[in-house]
Design goal:
By secondary structure, the chain is an alpha+beta fold. Helix content is 29%, strand content 27%. The protein is built from 16 helices and 28 strands. Tetramer of two alpha and two beta subunits.
Amino acid sequence: MPKIEISRDKFFDALGRRFSYPELEELLTVAKGELDDVDEEEGLLKIELNDTNRPDLWSLRGLVRQLRTYLGEPAPTYPFISRPNERKESGERTIEVDPGLREIRPYIAGFVARGRVVDDDLLRDLIQTQEKLCWNFGQKRKAVAMGIYRSTLIRYPVQYKAADPDRTRFVPLSMEKELSLREILREHPKGQEFGWIVEHLPAYPFLTDARGEVLSFPPIINSARIGAVEVGDEELFVELTGLDLKTILLACTIVACDMADEGFEILPVKVVYPYDTPMGRELTTPFAFQTVEHTTRSAVEKLLGLNFTSEEISQALTRMGVSHTIEGDTITIVPPVYRNDFLHPVDIAEDIMIGHGMDRFDPEMPRDFTVGRLSAAEERNRRVKMLMVGMGFQEMIFNYLGSRRDFIEKMRVSDEDAIRVANPLSENYEYVRPSVLPSLLAAESVSSHAVYPHHIFETGKVAKKDPEDNYGSKTYNMLGFLSADPKADFNMTSSHVAALCYYLGKEYTLEPKEDPRFVPGRTAALLVGGREVGIFGEVHPEVLENWGITMPCAACEINLDILFEAE
């Protein structure tokens, strides 16, 4: 979870009153935060935020904004925000995007902030905001990278280019010699840390102004001149680049609102794309893309176990800074421009709960007495785990959400049965996994340093579309196992399958099967009671190459639900 360090005096001054530490600890629950530590000597508060869906809270100004609103202050408004039907004036401030970036790092947003002199505290806060957004929300700069520049040195339009990594050269921040983009990845500390994001690309993202003066090599490092923000600067240009447009727009708005709360005047910037984007080819940022959301009073009352009047619901949402209307049983909200965490009516109920005051909910003793026990499926899974460990396999545990690239493209399979999340936080959590094998291959791809052979397995869940199911999808308990070794082949995996079925008391047959994940002619379907329950074989060389694996691998996947149903 993200932790921030903020000046105690600046924090209390911004709140408009001082709190004792126990009072502050209680108040921070509104932002799902905890007072982690207090550095009395330095006058710093160390606060841990426990909600990864609220990156707007990961800064002094964002946290203060939420707490002040909860304490009764009017929610701030931000007149510089453009909307789909309202584009703000951008003047000459324009970013032009190179067509070559479409498959590299396609999206950018930005703004200019002026009218406030940068001091030590403000510079420290800006750097912390940049680090928290790009590291936590931005997946270590892969999804979001942010640059801050001395705006007075920039001539518009800014050029966002796809640059040749060997011919393009500049002097990076904290260095005095000129390096090519590829040399920066090898020689600069930031290049060594973040070079993995771009090193495989045919061209690298690059930012210059209209005269060719270098701003930065995103997402790696700024230039030593325009990108060296110092105490005393009064006008800053802020840009954010990344892979998902909504993610970039949200991060841009968060930073712009924070800087507006610090006293800056925010000047919008127009971005001109040569290709289609979800928001069109011309976009003025900061930009609010959020849409209205709805729920009902009856649904909220059922979830929270408390009856509310319209006035109580309105007061609760107002304290959370959420614009809303209530007509009859229907509650309609407009998310704040710096939030994108209203994905379901439950999220509205949660804000009503927090705004109403969690201490106003009386605790209730459970009315039913139940005895906990393992489900039949879990008991079967545990039995399978013991057998796999007994055969020399090491158990792994993986996430159930992942990217299209990992679950579909690298595996050479269709997405026909795959389930895509409608509003993912990022492309890394876009799909529910349809198979265990990508997870096993991902683990093997980073295990080449370990002594071979590698034998790993997981018993976990997968989900696939099923039009005959009421929900349109079905979840299965699966066993997947993989062997990586020079001797790993069809016969080795077949022997493991035979041992597993023997100890489970299952008679089986094999049939040849074609599957793009496996080598043709070295693949078999596993049938029990005439029903196909799994597949195994030698992993296709192209799949191994996609994962960067150089060792031969053989793998198997078995549907445990069907296996134990089959006679």
